[in-house]
Amino acid sequence: MTTIRVLALTGLFLTSLAFDQADAGDARAGRQKITTCQACHGLDGLSKNPESPNLAGQIESYLTRSLEAFRSGERKNDAMNIVAKELSDEDIADVSAYYASIQVDVLPP
To answer: Do you know which Pfam families this protein is assigned to (predicted)?
Structure first.
C-alpha cells in the first residue's frame, strides 16, 4: 500500500510540473482587452446573440485552444477568424483568463 501511495504522489507531483504557470493569463489585463468580444458575446460573457456562445465561466485552456485555432484558421468562423488573427499569444492568455474567472451560477430546473 505504501508503494502505491508513493507512486500516486510522485505522479501528482510530476503532473503539477507539466503545467507552466508562465502560460497563465492575467484576468485583469484580459478585462481591458475584451471590447471587441463584447459585441457578440455580451458585456459579461453571457451572449444575447443565439449565434454566439457564452464565454463566462468557460475553462481557460478550452478558450485558449479555441482562440488559437480561430487565429490559425484551423477552426472556421468568419468573424472569429478575423478577430483572432489580431490577437497575440499574451492577448489570448489574458482574455481566456478573464472569461474563465467569471463565476456562473447554474440553477437546475
So the answer is: Cytochrom_C
Q: What is the mean pLDDT of each run of 10 residues along the chain (109 residues)?
A: 51 45 82 96 95 97 98 97 98 98 95
d(CA 9, CA 102): 31
Report how far apart, in Å, the C-alpha atoms of 57 and of each of 4, 8, 27, 63, 67 are: 35, 30, 12, 10, 16
Domain ranges of the chain: 28-101
Kindly tell me the burial class for residue 52, based on how many C-beta atoms sit within 10 Å of its own C-beta (0-12, 13-18, 19 or more). Answer: middle
What distance in Å separates the CA atoms of residue 72 and residue 60, rounded to the nearest whole number? 18
Predicted TM-score (pTM) of the model is: 0.77
Q: For the structural domain made of 28-101, what CATH number should be given?
A: 1.10.760.10
